[in-house]
Amino acid sequence: KRPRQMPSPRGMWCMIRSELIQKIADENPHLYQRDVERIVNTIFEEITNAMARGDRVELRGFGAFSVKKRDARVGRNPRTGESVEVDEKHVPFFKTGKLLRDRLNGK
Fold first, then answer.
1. How do the pLDDT tens digits run along the chain, 107 residues long?
2. What is the rounded CA–CA span in Å between residue 44 and residue 52?
């Protein structure tokens, strides 16, 4: 089993989904772990489904998830320097909310 709070490749600490579920279950002993798991999975599925439809998901104080369109462009292969066509694509985007930003900056 993986040790709690393992550093990511960039050396920062990360939390995986199962650790989030366990933490919520530990802090809410009146809930069964399987119910907490179902709730967490439903939240992530709903955010994913909304973004797949192109909708924006806003969690006040935490942040907003949205989808940004990146236009097609001409890129360069870094190894050869050759020009490469890069197709248009949609990428997930997260903008932090004011409360989260303030907390991260010690305000």
1. 455 555 656 667 788 999 999 999 999 999 999 999 999 999 999 999 999 999 999 999 999 999 999 999 999 999 999 999 999 999 999 999 999 999 999 88
2. 12
Whole-model pTM? 0.75
Query: CA-to-CA distance for 58 and 54, rounded, in angstroms?
Result: 13
User: Residues 18, 56, 35, CA angle at the centre, nearest 5°?
Assistant: 30
Length of the chain: 107
Report the largest interatomic distance among the alpha carbons of the chain, rounded to a whole angstrom.
60
Q: State the distance between the two ends of the chain, measured CA to CA, in whole angstroms.
A: 36
Helices 17-27 and 33-52: crossing angle in degrees, nearest 10, is 130
Residue among 81, 83, 65, 63 nearest 73 (CA): 83
Closest CA to 21 of 9, 7, 35: 35
